[in-house]
């Protein structure tokens, strides 16, 4: 195997068979299932396919795109075709981000195992590559630039490679670098010569300048010099001394440097490109917040119409929607349930052409994936449109499939005075929905039932009349009558067994904030359309904040968003709304903001609200924020970019003209954006050196979005990459921002290099 595979990946029989190629059946739907010839390429990192062996092949996917390989029985599509294709012969390739899964069926169980084992072997290899291997890309670039594959690179091939690398360089300067690296004077670059050329090409002059500002001899940073840098530039404060030793030990490549407690230029650059040098504070990455406060004190990662993986009218309903939502950290998922055939409830977007899935499949999927990403509670938001009979089936499925995971009574059997905390509800699934009566009445009935059971155990005979009484007990809120016909006619709309599963999250209609305060309890929750929530924020923003300090609110997208587009969640968060439900299947600005907030705190799906949004007496108004907030001024020097990708990779000779836009989202007065000028024809190492300034009144609510765009005077600038970070998780000093794609996938090694400085107060404020 050539390139990356050679000498670094243990070759096994599965990979050799995959390189020879194999006929597999590609399955898109129950009616579209066609044979294609799949082959692992010589680089060991890409899979191509053709209609037949020897036919025109085209790339299907890269190994780095693959998240995992699933067995056939885990695919709902392959399960639906089990009578036609044995499940043991099927497998599913799951990709990172929102790309659709690839379902394949082999001609035998043995061939399926070859592909499953081989692909997983490659995925594990790529995942396990250490940081140095990921940064060390010159081998890959050499393979791409060596057009005739003779192991040598001419200057003509180098010029072509520069275009592939997205950089336009003065020809004379490029030839000078080429000649310097060509130590054998052969007119071509081989092996180590190309490595030296690549290192010269990727030299970070702007980082050298920072290094030399603190290094007395320009060769190394002594321990004291590095401590000065961490304290003065990186704002590390008192921990700078201890941190300097840790970082030298972690990033200095030479053993002698580690022994002498000095940091070389290579070590300094490794630090700046690492998690420690990232704009996102690494202390905010694990769970770092207090998780013992009531549920209503947290923002909760929430999904709207979770079953949909496309639009709201004709899109596909799939359990894959739940898998993806739960794996990305969603803690509140929505289930629209309707009467289905054969007495089995189904899930789909009612009165539309969206496809249907069995409710029991959704519950089984939630049971399997609920706690793979986070141990904190999952909320099932039920939209129940079913008949009495199928509601009983819903209750049975929830109870039997979820088992101990389902929370079906209060944690201690006692009446609470506030909602439990995420910590208390670890690995529990809660049902949110309508309820026949209050929690107090439920607990009172449970007490009576326990007394009756106790009497029975004490020796009393349980005759059929008493058994009937016990069985009918949950229906006692229905109009009572000894006349059985009348009792049947007055049966409540909601099935008592389903009602009983709603404990802490009873859905109630919203009338007004005064009405809620007077008539509702802390465990009752209201839902608001995005337009209703917005108008309430404008009309009674402070009341909304106070409401959300003691009760949960859920906000959902407008029904007019048939394309599954999203709204900006920020203004709802500003009012303290906890469950701001999004169409998570749709990438874009709104989901960038959403993912940015929930990237912190271990990605657990719960983020603690600022203290002024947790106070039921708060004076905060999201539309008119006033003191005592500590206003701050933010200065961002956008210095340089590194290896920015092309938006349109099909145009080999096109080179980007990048610019950086910084956007702030927060309370209305803080929302702003500024951008640099564009750098012409350089996506490889553009330099801006421009400073942007922002003034922020409520930093606790602000998020920053860094967007890199390709300047285009004819139309809107093309998106290259972005990264969004909460203000409270942002590190000061010289930092790298590692860019993400539209789908939130790493664009490694693409990054921008910035200097962040935060000053207390507003510019010109002398107070």
Summarize the helices and strands and which ones pair or pack.
Blueprint lengths: L12 H8 L1 E6 L5 E8 L5 E5 L7 E5 L3 E6 L4 H5 L9 E6 L6 E4 L3 H20 L2 H5 L2 H8 L9 H10 L6 H11 L10 H10 L3 H10 L5 E2 L1 H10 L7 H12 L3 H6 L2 E2 H8 L25 E3 L1 E2 L15 H9 L4 E7 L7 E2 L9 E2 H11 L8 E7 L3 H15 L26 E5 L5 H19 L6 H9 L11 H6 L6 H4 L2 E6 L5 H7 L4 E6 H19 L4 E4 L13 H5 L4 E4 L6 H10 L7 E3 L23 E11 L15 E8 L6 E4 L11 E10 L6 E8 L7 E9 L6 E8 L5 E15 L7
Parallel strand pairs: 11-20, 12-15, 15-16, 16-17, 17-18, 18-19, 19-20
Antiparallel strand pairs: 1-2, 1-7, 2-3, 3-4, 5-6, 6-7, 8-9, 10-21, 12-13, 13-14, 22-25, 22-29, 23-24, 23-26, 26-27, 28-29
Keywords: Calcium, Cytoplasm, Endoplasmic reticulum, Hydrolase, Lipid degradation, Lipid metabolism, Membrane, Metal-binding, Nucleus, Repeat, Transducer
Cofactor: Ca(2+)
EC number: 3.1.4.11
Task: Identify the notable features of this structure and list them briefly.
globular, 22% strand, Recoverin, domain 1, 10-stranded mixed beta sheet, 31% helix, 5 domains, phosphatidylinositol phospholipase C activity, PH-domain like, PH_domain, single chain, 767 residues, alpha+beta, nucleus, disordered N terminus
Brief summary of the model shown:
The chain is α+β, with helices and mostly antiparallel strands and 767 residues long. The protein is built from 24 helices and 29 strands. It folds into five domains: 117 residues, Roll (PH-domain like); 68 residues, Recoverin, domain 1; 73 residues, Recoverin, domain 1, CATH 1.10.238.10; 267 residues, TIM Barrel (Alpha-Beta Barrel), CATH 3.20.20.190; 129 residues, C2 domain (Immunoglobulin-like, Sandwich).
């Amino acid at each position: 195997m050539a390139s990356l595979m050679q000498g670094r990946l243990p070759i096994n029989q599965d990979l050799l068979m995959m390189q020879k190629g194999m006929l597999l059946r590609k399955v898109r739907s129950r009616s579209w299932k066609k044979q294609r010839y799949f082959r692992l390429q010589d680089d060991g990192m890409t899979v191509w396919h053709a209609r037949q062996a020897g036919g025109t092949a085209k790339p299907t996917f890269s190994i780095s795109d693959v998240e995992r390989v699933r067995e056939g029985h885990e695919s709902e599509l392959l399960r639906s075709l089990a009578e036609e294709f044995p499940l043991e012969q099927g497998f599913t390739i799951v990709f990172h981000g929102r790309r659709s899964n690839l379902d394949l069926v082999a001609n035998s169980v043995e061939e399926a195992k070859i592909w499953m084992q081989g692909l997983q072997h490659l995925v594990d290899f790529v995942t396990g590559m250490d940081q140095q291997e990921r940064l060390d890309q010159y081998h890959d670039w050499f393979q791409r630039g060596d057009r005739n594959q003779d192991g040598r690179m001419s200057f003509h091939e180098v010029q072509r490679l520069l275009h592939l690398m997205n950089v336009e360089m003065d020809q004379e300067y490029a030839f000078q670098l080429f000649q310097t690296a060509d130590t054998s004077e052969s007119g071509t670059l081989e092996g180590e010569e190309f490595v030296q050329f690549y290192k010269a090409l990727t030299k970070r002059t702007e980082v050298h300048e920072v290094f030399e500002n603190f290094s007395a001899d320009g060769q190394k940073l002594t321990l004291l010099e590095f401590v000065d840098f961490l304290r003065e530039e990186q704002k590390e404060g008192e921990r700078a001394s201890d941190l300097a030793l840790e970082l030298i030990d972690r990033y200095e490549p030479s053993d002698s440097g580690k022994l002498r407690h000095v940091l070389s230029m290579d070590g300094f650059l490794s630090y700046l490109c690492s998690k420690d040098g990232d704009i996102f504070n690494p202390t905010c990455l694990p769970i770092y917040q207090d998780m013992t406060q009531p549920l209503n004190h947290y923002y909760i990662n929430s999904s709207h119409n979770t079953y949909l993986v496309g639009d709201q009218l004709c899109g596909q309903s799939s359990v894959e929607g739940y898998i993806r939502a739960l794996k990305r950290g969603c803690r509140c998922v929505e289930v629209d349930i309707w009467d289905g055939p054969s007495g089995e409830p189904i899930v789909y977007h009612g009165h539309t052409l969206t496809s249907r899935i069995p409710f029991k499949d959704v519950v089984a999927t939630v049971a399997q994936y609920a706690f793979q990403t986070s141990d904190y509670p999952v909320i099932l938001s039920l939209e129940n449109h079913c008949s009495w009979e199928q509601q009983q089936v819903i209750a049975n499925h929830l109870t039997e499939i979820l088992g101990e995971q389902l929370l079906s009574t209060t944690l201690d059997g006692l009446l609470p005075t506030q909602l439990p905390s995420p910590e208390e509800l670890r690995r529990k699934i809660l049902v949110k929905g309508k309820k026949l009566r209050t929690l107090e009445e439920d607990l009172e009935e449970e007490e009576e039932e326990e007394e009756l059971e106790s009497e029975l155990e004490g020796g009393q005979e349980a005759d059929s009349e008493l058994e009937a009484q016990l069985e009918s007990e949950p229906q006692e809120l229905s109009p009572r009558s000894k006349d059985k016909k009348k009792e049947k006619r007055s049966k409540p709309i909601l099935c008592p067994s389903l009602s009983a599963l709603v404990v802490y999250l009873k859905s109630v209609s919203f009338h007004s904030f005064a009405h809620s305060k007077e008539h509702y309890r802390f465990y009752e929750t209201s839902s608001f359309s995005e337009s209703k929530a917005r108008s309430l924020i404008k009309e009674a923003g402070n009341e909304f904040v106070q409401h959300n300090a003691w009760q949960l609110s859920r906000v959902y997208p407008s029904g007019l968003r048939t394309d599954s587009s999203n709204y900006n969640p920020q203004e709802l968060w500003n009012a303290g709304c906890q469950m701001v439900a999004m169409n998570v299947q749709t990438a874009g600005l709104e989901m960038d903001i959403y993912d940015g907030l929930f990237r912190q705190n271990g990605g657990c799906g719960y983020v603690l609200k600022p203290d002024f949004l947790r106070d039921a007496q708060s004076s905060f108004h999201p539309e008119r924020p006033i003191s005592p907030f500590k206003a701050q001024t933010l200065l961002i020097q956008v210095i340089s970019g590194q290896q920015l990708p092309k938006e349109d990779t099909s145009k080999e000779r096109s080179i980007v003209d990048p610019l950086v836009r910084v956007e702030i989202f927060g309370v209305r007065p803080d929302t702003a954006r500024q951008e640099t000028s564009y750098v012409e024809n350089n996506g490889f190492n553009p330099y801006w050196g421009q400073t942007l300034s922002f003034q922020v009144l409520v930093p606790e609510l602000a998020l920053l979005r860094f967007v890199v765009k390709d300047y285009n005077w004819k139309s809107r600038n093309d998106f290259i990459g972005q990264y969004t970070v909460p203000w409270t998780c942002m590190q000061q000093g010289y930092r790298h921002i590692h860019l993400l794609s539209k789908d939130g996938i790493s664009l490694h090694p693409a990054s921008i290099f910035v200097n962040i400085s935060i000053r207390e107060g507003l510019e010109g404020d002398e107070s």
